Amino acid sequence: MLLAVGFAVPLTLADLLTLGARWSALPPVVPGMIIMSLFVRAFLVAASITDKCGRVPALVNSLCFGPGTEAKRQLLVDYISSSGAGFYVCDVRLTVGMALK
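Now predict its structure.
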């Protein structure tokens, strides 16, 4: 992700320098910058949701459903943990750490 942004910024500056460093050269470059920033934001939001999904088992485990439900609660926590909920890109779980790489 950062690699894409790392390439986009110098290329944007190169476009501005080739088109001339004046205000009339900026409008053709703005849509690309907007799309890139929205792309980065979407990945970071999806990654943060995946990280929140990782905390759901602890939340469910801390709830009290009444007497005699500990075994069923543990089965639910195991099911949630093993389901691997979250966003995946090319079969790789998207976390904040992965999104920032």
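The helical segments are 2-19, 30-53, 56-62, 70-83, 96-100.
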